[in-house]
Amino acid sequence: MQGNFKYHNPTKLYFGEEALNCLKDELDGLGQTVLLNYGSGSVKRNGIYDQVVAILREAGKTIVENPGVMSNPTLEKLHEGVRLARENKVDWILALGGGSVCDYSKGVAASVYYEGDYWQQFWLDGHQPAKDQRILPVGCILTMAGTGSEMNGGCVITDAQKNFKTGHVFDSRLMPRFAILNPRFTMTVPIEQMKAGIYDIMNHIMEQYFSDFDDNTSDYIAEGLMRGLIVASRAAVKDPLNYEARSNIMWTATWALNTLIRCGKSEDWMVHMLGHSLGAWTHAPHGYTLASVTPAYYRRAMENGLPKFARYAQTVWNIRPEGKTEHELAEAGLQALCNWMKEIGLPLTISEIGATPEMIDNIVSTTEIFPAGYLNLTADDVKQILLESL
Ligand code: NZQ
Ligand code: ZN
Q1: From the CB of 183, is ligand 1 less than 6 Å away?
Q2: Tens digit of pLDDT for each residue in 17-48?
């Protein structure tokens, strides 16, 4: 293992069909007034909201409702949540929804007791809250698998005025105190969102895996996660109500991005930077934005990362090396990835998610670029990748 790293993840997980019963165990240690964040209404339609509110009421908690947290939450909505939390002096925050609601809840939790411009301080300047700043505890009841937000410090917010979507990874104080993962809750997720979540998981693993060439335990774990995800994704697309598949997808999502497989890795994350920018301009689901630039991005990365891509072809896609050069093997692995993406119905071009040639310069201008993985891109390279992805 190379580098020096700290591994600390304080999130307690409750997993399975009975997981929500454990919510009451967590409530004693939390304050009286809870800010209940949720999205555009799916939790009301599928009955999860009623179950959660009944448990909170039984425990005598005061609930401050904050509905309408949109997919890809906006800065404006963040301000609204912070205002609501301050006015009602909430003691803690409960996120009820997917990655958007969970991310958003962390953003509010970090900002309520910050006296200055929290957007500038945390997201634009990338600082962590000061050691002595009060941070509200966050709990998460997850209803969609994908982002890993339930067990990490990530918080992605979109400044809709500027079409600028950016994330901040908060330190472990902002990781949810607990997360409740009932795979049944994900059964009502629209199929398109389920697929977007599946690719988000795959890409999180790849963003960490495709960096460095040393022998690293994290890569072996990553390969196992990818292999499992491929099996589960095929079963879930065939039968979305397959509990075995949906539960494996949910558990894989959490471990794909909870800081475990980044240990000793330099990581990449440029597909996510491209995806965030595409998302801000097209409003497509997060996982689709990532899928749409995947072929063009990894074709480039492969040229500098041949040994790793050749290993990936064998360990993840079971491609036999006999009779192939390293380059041919790497190509075959990439082709297998694209075939799987097509098979489960993911977009492979940015046109499919609504991007047009006229948007390209704007998308380039809002893409955050840094040296990453096997590439060190310029703005011109980003433009090329987007053009190749049309
Ligand atoms: O608005 P509601 O009613 O909640 O509907 C949502 C939304 O329309 C719906 N949904 C969720 N659970 C459902 C359901 N519909 C029916 N039944 C259910 N059980 O699905 C839609 C998408 O939900 P959303 O939370 O937006 O999706 P996701 O979990 O993919 O989260 C996306 C956000 O997370 C950020 C993304 O950028 C994006 O803003 N990310 C956060 C990361 C992190 N914290 O580390 C990393 C990721 O790379 C990602 O950037
Ligand atoms: Zn992602």
Answers
A1: no
A2: 999 999 999 999 999 999 999 999 999 999 99
